Amino acid sequence: MILKGTNIKKYFPIRKGVFLQTAGYVKALEQVDFELNEHETLGVVGESGCGKTTLGRVITLIYSATKGHLAYTTPDHHTSHIDKTINKHDLKRYRRDMQMVFQDPFSSLDPRMTIGDILREPLDIHQIYPNRNERDEYIEYLLSRVGLYPEYAIRYPHEFSGGQRQRISIARAIALKPRAIVCDEPTSALDVSVQSQIINLLQELKEQERMAYFFISHDLDLVHHISDRIMVMYLGSVMEEGSAYEVFNHASHPYTRVLMKSIPHWDPKQRKLGSVHLKGEPPSPINPPKGCPFNTRCPKAYDRCAREMPTLKRLNNHHSVACWLYTD
Amino acid sequence: MSIIQVERLKSHFKTDEGIVKAVDDISFELRDNEILALVGESGCGKSVTVQTIMGLLKCPPAIIEGSIKYLGKELIGMSNKAYQRLRGKEIGMIFQEPMSAFDPLYTVGEQACEAVSVHSKLDKAGIRDKIIAMFNKVGIPEAESRYDEYPHQMSGGMLQRMLIAMTLACDPNVLIADEPTTALDVTIQAQVLNLMRDLQKEFNTSIIFITHDLGVVAELADRIHVMYAGKIVEKAQVVELFDRPKHPYTKGLLASRLKRDLKGQILPFIKGTVPRAFEFPKGCRFHPRCPHAMEICRQRDPEPVVFENGHSCSCWLYASNNNIDGVDKT
Amino acid sequence: MKGNTAVRVRKAFFKHKLGIVGIIILILLYLMILFADFLAPYNYKNTKRDFTFSEPTKIHWRKDDKFVGPFVYGMTRSRDPVTFAVKYVEDQEKVYPVKFFVRGETYKFWGLWETDVHLFGIGQHDDAVLYLFGGDRFGRDLFSRVLIGGRVSLTAGLIGTFIAVVIGAIVGAFSGYFGGWIDVTIQRLIEILRSFPRIPLWLALAMLLPPTWPSTTVYLGIVIVLSFIGWMGVARVIRGMVLSLREKEYVLAAQVIGQSNFKIITKHLIPNTITYLVVVSTLSIPGMILGESSISFLGLGIKEPMTSWGLLLKQAQSLSDIQSHPWLMIPGLFIILAVLSFNFVGDALRDALDPYRAVDKV
Fold first, then answer.
1. Chain B window 25-64: which residues touch C at a Cβ cutoff of 8 Å?
2. Is residue A302 part of a domain?
């Protein structure tokens, strides 16, 4: 196991007034437990406002969790707690091992730096290949690894298409030879005909470099394709979690079922969207409902759902669900 | 009957880097009471096409040639005043980002009223009632109180439904929807698509629906036109297109669908990238990425070959003067 | 800026006729002060009692109906018996041709070597001068003084702006990036300082400079005073830009690879505000030029015999002076010229760098 998150909570304060008093909180993550294992892809799926991007950013320390534990275990079984008290050495190690690929290919590369500079930056910070020639060779190697010509190192990001930029982002992410990469919707902003190329590349790199992926996406089909395990999130909590096969074929949580039914199928002879019945609007994370966050729209909600928040309960070895329908 | 007839339309733009041929010689028609989908990726010209139809392009820098007829009346060259009478009342349009279609400073009610009153002779109270009735129809809860709320107080899905309500309140013959659900969550998208399908049946509106999502197209459209780099490469009825696609690009798009049984395997993909607008290749624009490219594809742009049931495809694989006798090579 | 962008910006800039005019004028002005010693026929300090308030010297080209080339007549000074006004009368007997590369007073060329060659002049004479802009109250050549004075006026603004922009960018970037109490403190401080009226504040600070300081130190003091206020406007705008830039994914990516905060600010944030910084610098320089002029005009800046355009204007304060010796206002023309040119260039640059105006401007 690489990373274990326990009871992760992330609230963003809303500040108003001259002296920035706190007027409320955006409750982006309420209570999240997860485990990321060696060489595995954990897919995190949900719609906007579910907290999946926030979770990815908490893991990469862009945000620090309001509450909860994040524990990182190195290959030689040394565990460190990832929070403000972490010592410099462990933090540097963690940064090397946990990288990120972002969603927007047009703003994830500094427009004023050449590709070579962009790839050089992580190497300089972690003092990899201090010898200049070795470093430049490594950069060329990285570029060809992601399917780009080494000559591209002297060019600027705006000279490339979205798909090519995303490849550059991936090259940056693997430069430090990380153990895991958080992929935050890496293909959502790309043309459809290019998405498959990037997915194939990510799969290939994962096999060859033996990395783990924390793969965030709103596309359930994509998440199913690429993940070993899947986590379904709604309004800051995990609704269902398990192996890709289990979650996809035996979707248990009412939300997961609605999600699966809402995906358009590419079959004009079987039009199914008419069978989706989901009432109401997604609630605001500033004022989440009491109890189960989905209870205001759930077709199967009953009185307990509005009172108490359900926790993840195991259905079997590969499947857990947070829903009162499956308790007692 | 043809509601909109587009003949050999060209929308070019003069820029510092040269002439951008965003839409380059396309012809199609929108029939009565149908949902026509224009499908394509970035730079294919689908948005520019409908902007041209709506007269939203500034000439210069745009250069427009060809013909667009609405109910037999030529639209190209029409004055802005004449277009204003057309927009909203005859041809309505909704866009991709519902939040930015609203002015944040006014309530949704005020804005809906503004839109409807341009084309209606009712008094203010009458318009308000009509709008609230439409809001109810599109499934907005507590429509009366929503009328006086501001756009930022509502979700994207609700705003998009309001926009549909406002547009249909003017009872246009045609509704153009430019990627209306792309920015919405998948569960909300399902609601909005259902709504559009039901309303289309009820109001008999013809819809031009623009998207890059073939799944949405399968759920909603009657006919599909596939666009690539400023051209229409294939036209067909929806079932026909999914069952028997002809153009290599269409096939590539359909093949890249994430099917369950492909899990863990290498996904089929279309090599290369979508060309940028001022870098369109010579000859068939798809040839650098096409697995079946031949010499003639590099030289000349293919003309459409018509099959039965209105299925047509612009590809040298099917051209009869390619000494293959028009036989389906695939 | 790279490739396409640089070409586009250059093309857009040159569409601005005023911008081109501004650039040409600025180049001429800066060349002028660079070669001031060479271009000026006279030393800026030497007084000539016989030529106080002399009019701009007339250059004649024809003598006895023949074209002979430029020359001047000797002057005799007399008083009008009725008005007691000083008059200069040409003495047609004394003819002095205007020569080029003439020898005059010695000076140090850029402080490096001594020479006495001037671009043009008539040589040293007691009864004739070539005062293109006339003479001041001490009989000094205004033309030479304008050239030398330009050095102070045109460089104080430049250096002051540079210091202000550098300080403003750093403070603003730190304020915007870290947020929290650092941001609140700095912003309140700026607001307090900014609520003081600008010119009185400049004057108050200028008064703090000891009058016993040598000229060059006073000059540096003025520059620091000018930049003391300028940095705040820059800081606020940079802070605003950084607030949105810090959410950009390439900044987040830099955090994820472990880059230090300081390097993120200096490598990623500030360079992405360069276009604004260039424009604001160009548009701030006129303010600084006017600031220096104001301070010196009011006697609080550099002192005689060193001079600047503002100080030169001090002599043109009363209406009677202006009426009888209107050429004393010429330094004001130069100030206007410089300020306008910087404004034209700044406007043209701002439009050229603005990516949203890439289409033809009407």
1. 61
2. yes
